[in-house]
Amino acid sequence: MKVKICGIRDMKTAEFAIEAGADAIGFVFAESKREISIEEARKITASLPDKVLKIGVFVNETKDVLERTFEEVGLTHLQLHGDESPEFCRSIRYPVIKAIRVMSNEDLRTIPQYDCEYILLDSPYGKYRGGNGTTFDWNLLKEIEIQKDKLILAGGLTIDNVLEAIDLGKPGMVDVSSGVETNGMKDHSKIGDFIKKVKGGGKVNDNLYTSR
């Protein structure tokens, strides 16, 4: 099971997450309390291993800005969290993750229209499009038809509910942001514990919590 830590804004947290076992790092370029500049994101990606997915999160951005940011930052994927159409996603020349907010089965029926590298299922919009710390009805996931390794599950995940979400949705990756924060800031201890929980209780180096 892969883990994405989203909303990264500093080098130390990115490095900690990777050392703790994260497979993907997310940078938010849309309006958000976790928004990061292109310059800062580029500094972070330059220090990360090649095997780590570097994902940029955008909302209703132009194709030109998406592709230019991909190149300037050194991303591996573009996560589109707005109202982007299947045709728009296909027009992007770099790997796309299409985020779909889930309120009912009707939303899940749109999945086959998107032939993207990944589909991310998230909770309905709050103040921002993502990262609001709310869940959706994971029981809906029992009926969806999708190659499971292409499914990313997000929305209100925490160390307390992530195993239930995985059991119901069988995703290839889980995506967490607010669930590993304390007072709006990424919490290294919570990141380590979350990754350990998802990956089956494998030991996380205790020194990680004291070395940063």
Automatic annotation (TrEMBL):
Which keywords label this protein? Answer: Amino-acid biosynthesis, Aromatic amino acid biosynthesis, Isomerase, Tryptophan biosynthesis
Checking CDD domains in the record gives: PRAI
* Similarity comment: family membership: Belongs to the TrpF family.
The record lists the catalysed reaction(s) as: N-(5-phospho-beta-D-ribosyl)anthranilate = 1-(2-carboxyphenylamino)-1-deoxy-D-ribulose 5-phosphate
State the name under which the record lists this protein: N-(5'-phosphoribosyl)anthranilate isomerase
Span of domain N-(5'phosphoribosyl) anthranilate isomerase (PRAI): 3-196
The gene designation is trpF
Q: Which domain of life, per UniProt?
A: Bacteria
- The EC number(s) this enzyme carries: 5.3.1.24
Q: Which InterPro entries match?
A: Aldolase_TIM, PRAI_dom, RibuloseP-bd_barrel, TrpF_fam
Signal peptide segment:
none
Q: In which pathway does it act?
A: Amino-acid biosynthesis; L-tryptophan biosynthesis; L-tryptophan from chorismate: step 3/5
Q: Which GO terms describe its biological process?
A: L-tryptophan biosynthetic process
Q: Name one GO molecular function term.
A: phosphoribosylanthranilate isomerase activity
